From TrEMBL:
The gene is nat8l. It catalyses: L-aspartate + acetyl-CoA = N-acetyl-L-aspartate + CoA + H(+). The chain crosses the membrane at residues 95-121. Pfam families: Acetyltransf_1. The keyword Magnesium does not apply. GO terms for cellular component: endoplasmic reticulum membrane; mitochondrial membrane. PANTHER family: GNAT FAMILY N-ACETYLTRANSFERASE (PTHR13947), N-ACETYLASPARTATE SYNTHETASE (PTHR13947:SF11). This is N-acetylaspartate synthetase. Its main location: cytoplasm. Belongs to the NAT8 family.
Length: 278
């Protein structure tokens, strides 16, 4: 039975009986600071420590604009990543594009057109990546991200947090509980690109794990289409383990037309962190 608002789910196995076993269950989940300690510092140095401190707090209505901006910019970064870097994860698509390039030479007998074929294919990938991701953004910004208060803060079992640095919102994360299978899902994690590399994403992830432990959830789960390896390493550093992946994932807003299938593919990975045996 859960007493405070629960959160989202992800997958990996750890022992939750010991509080220290769950990342983010100490004061670190409330405030993260890069300097080691302020005990031996003079007053001016203490002020510097506080300026560098990242506080994780619950979402407030006044955060809406900054939260939507961070979410929007984070998703927009996936357009070139999916179009170009994501192609490395699609060997079948690479082979198909190479075949189309060769066919172009035999059909046109033109070296110039053949040399242009890869550029045309990459241009088409960028166009469809932009089209699909814009559709996904439009869907998200008109559903849960349109009214965070109503979607995450009011319902029991859900919550939304922001990371604040020097008075500015620099990161976001959400959690949504699933009472049917006693799991909580980690969602919408994103950090302002200007403040990455400071451990903010890890602190946000720990807050969700702390929330799950406090509310007696059995597991935390998440799904991601991130192309960058750093995102996957972050989840693994928090204790998550990959439980599966799909090479033909369908994002909200996709129409799955033949051209869209040819020029847009995305890998969807599922992670789980098991907090306790059910």
């Amino acid at each position: 039975m859960h007493f405070s608002s629960p959160k989202m789910v992800c997958e990996t196995k750890i022992v939750a009986d010991e509080h220290d076993a769950i990342p983010g269950t100490k004061k670190e989940s409330i405030m993260w600071s890069s300097p080691p300690s302020s005990a031996a510092l003079n007053p001016s140095e203490v002020t510097d420590v506080r300026k560098d401190a990242v506080f994780i707090r619950e979402f407030e209505c006044g955060d809406q604009e900054e939260v939507r901006r961070i979410f929007y910019e984070g998703i927009m970064e996936r357009i070139p990543n999916t179009a170009f870097r994501g192609l490395r994860q699609q060997p079948k698509t690479q082979f198909l594009y190479a075949l189309l390039t060769v066919m172009c030479y035999f059909v046109t007998n033109s070296v110039t057109l053949t040399c242009c074929a890869p550029l045309i294919l990459m241009g088409a990938r960028y166009y469809y990546s932009r089209k699909v991701i814009h559709g996904y953004l439009d869907c998200a910004l008109h559903t849960d991200m349109a009214d965070i208060e109503a979607y995450y803060m009011k319902p029991t079992g859900s919550c939304f947090w922001v990371a604040v640095l020097d008075g500015r919102v620099v990161g976001i994360v959400a959690a949504k509980g699933r009472e049917d299978d006693n799991r909580v899902e980690l969602r919408r994690m994103s950090v302002d690109s200007r403040y990455r590399g400071k451990g903010i994403a890890k602190a946000l992830g720990r807050r969700v794990l702390e929330f799950a432990v406090r509310n007696n959830y059995a597991a935390v789960v998440l799904g991601t289409t991130a192309v960058k390896l750093a995102a996957h390493k972050l989840y693994e550093s928090l204790g998550f383990r990959r439980t599966g992946q799909s090479e033909d994932y369908r994002l909200p807003g996709m129409n799955r037309s033949p051209l869209e299938r040819l020029f847009f593919q995305i890998r969807y990975s599922r992670y789980r962190l098991q907090l306790r045996e059910e």
